[in-house]
Design brief:
heterodimer, A: 187 residues, Rna Polymerase Sigma Factor, Chain: A, Arc Repressor Mutant, subunit A, 2 domains, 9 helices, B: 339 residues, four-stranded antiparallel beta sheet, 7 helices, 13 strands, 26% helix, flat
């Protein structure tokens, strides 16, 4: 698949292309992390977050890929992992010059933080019940309450508003109860 | 103000639906009340993050993908078979496939070069010129290869004969890679397939590293000498991977666990060396011969593309010494297009 295809696929969330990307890149990422002491689970996290970083970048209108997609993706993964490891092990592990994280054109600190914050929100969102997830998805997409009420099969717009309040309140509480929240808010 | 009123106020503020006076009042309140400001910012971030339909779709797709990841051992095989069309049955298609395989095998026997033409991997240095693909060494796949699993690779052993090794890395065959250019690689090399063209720029010497080739740092620290592969050796890529027969000797004293020796593979690009970005790093397994001497003998495998690469043996520095590596030895090799 050509490099531009992967960018387009990530922008539209194309499951088939993501699967192909996984087949191609996951062994590479796993090998990279293995050399830096990472696990299979770490490799999956890094793969996922790298796709999300690429999405953030690809959304920017002035973004241009200046290398092979695979090379670019590898750099994003490497930076993600080194950034995390640097934070985690600032006082525990000696990090060689080769393995130090430095922000570059492939992933800025702000983009990595953005993904961390979105992960926090997404995990909280996924803990909600299915109907709350569906209702909030429609709400965050700015659909009118009367449309949401119809799509959700609620009897009235008023009930939809009350239900939305309950769901959103639950979401906010889940986010706030996560220890990572305070840290991300400070960042 | 109860929670319903608070959320409603924040949502109308974020949506730009408040009258000017109320809008300004919210901003004044945010300026003096940190908790209120944090609440507004949280709602803003939630709306931005979860209101991004593309992000939402992508995360849903990633959740589905990673909760049930595809097998990565059969990259060239579609996860699901394409639907049957027409009036063929599976039994008929299987028969056709078997017939085609038999014809293919006969053609292979007819077209394959004689075994005597098989050459071992070159141990002679090659020039840094654009590649003449016609002159590159080729390897034959032995006739019984069809009976082997498709995820096995064919690699030439030191003696020039051919033997299969599993493509999964063993303890001493860690894989660290730069991604391949192509979307998917063939499961097994085909010696009759035309050799892919390489980019001459990938074979241009790196003057900084060229000046260091063969340097054996001596003095108070450890010295290292790489005896294999000979610098400048050319290796054919097998399924996009290269295996390095690394042998060498470290002398000069104890090598402590916090200052291990590592093999770093750098591409020819200046910036890779300048930025200390090797494409692969392998811990060197050391065999102690006596108090002052260690032997190294291992065969790292890694995926890469055709080009000139530099093998750098380094000893990790401690934090007190400023981190990074102390370079002990530099050699080079070529990865040539292969099957």
């Amino acid at each position: 698949m050509a490099q531009t295809d992967y960018l387009a696929a990530i922008l539209v969330g194309d499951r088939t292309a993501l699967e192909q990307l996984y087949r191609e890149q996951f062994p590479v990422i796993r090998g990279l992390l293995r050399n830096y002491g990472g696990s299979e689970m770490d490799a999956k996290d890094v793969f996922q977050d790298a796709v999300l970083v690429v999405y953030q970048k690809a959304k920017q209108p002035d973004f241009q890929l200046t290398s092979q997609f695979g090379t670019f993706f590898y750099s994003v993964c490497r930076n993600l992992w080194l950034s995390r490891r640097s934070k985690k092990s600032a006082s525990e592990v000696t990090i060689s010059e080769d393995a130090k994280y430095t922000a570059d054109e492939t992933s800025s600190e702000a983009e990595l933080l953005q993904v961390e914050r979105d992960n926090l929100f997404w995990r909280a969102f996924r803990q909600l019940g299915e109907d709350c997830q569906k209702l909030l998805e429609l709400f965050f997409q700015k659909l009118p309450m009367e449309t949401i009420a119809v799509q959700m099969g609620f009897g009235s717009e008023g009930y939809a508003r009350r239900r939305k309040l309950q769901c959103k309140d639950r979401l906010v509480e889940l986010v706030k109860s996560n220890p990572a929240y305070r840290e991300l808010i400070r960042a | 103000m109860n929670k319903e009123e608070l959320y409603d106020l924040i949502e109308r503020y974020l949506g730009g639906a408040l009258p000017d006076a109320e809008h300004q009042e919210v901003e004044r309140q945010m300026a003096i009340d940190a908790d209120f400001r944090a609440e507004v910012e949280l709602h803003r971030a939630l709306h931005t993050s979860l209101g991004d339909a593309g992000n939402f779709r992508l995360r849903t797709a990633l959740d589905n993908l990673l909760s049930n990841p595809p097998s990565i051992n059969d990259a060239s095989t579609p996860k699901t078979a394409p639907p049957l069309t027409g009036s063929f049955t599976w039994r008929q298609l299987t028969s056709i496939a078997a017939l085609l395989a038999a014809i293919g095998f006969c053609l292979w026997l007819w077209l394959a070069p004689d075994d005597k033409t098989t050459r071992p991997i070159s141990s002679q240095p090659v020039q840094n010129q654009p590649i003449d693909t016609a002159s590159l060494p080729r390897q034959n796949t032995p006739p019984d290869s069809a009976s082997l699993p498709s995820n096995w690779l064919w690699l030439a052993s030191d003696g020039g004969t051919i033997r299969p090794i599993p493509s999964q890395p063993t303890q001493n065959q860690l894989i660290d890679t730069v991604p391949p250019d192509s979307a998917s690689l063939p499961a097994r090399p085909n010696p009759n397939k035309p050799i892919a063209m390489a980019d001459p720029a990938d074979f241009a010497p790196n003057p900084v590293l060229e000046a260091k080739i063969g340097d054996m740092v001596r003095g108070s620290g450890i010295g290292f000498e790489l005896t294999s592969p000979a610098t400048g050796t050319s290796f054919q890529l097998q399924n996009g991977q290269v295996t390095l027969p690394i042998r060498g000797t470290a002398t000069g004293g104890d090598i402590s666990a916090d200052q291990p020796l590592e093999l770093l593979i750098y591409p020819n690009r200046l910036e890779a060396w300048d930025n200390k970005q090797p494409i692969a790093t392998f811990p060197m397994p050391l065999i102690r011969d006596d108090n002052d001497t260690y032997r190294v003998d291992f065969r790292p495998v890694f995926r890469t593309r055709p080009g000139l690469y530099y093998m750098v043996v380094g000893q990790r520095r401690t934090k007190e010494d400023g981190d990074g590596y102390r370079t002990l030895w530099v050699g080079k090799f070529m990865a040539q297009p292969g099957g």
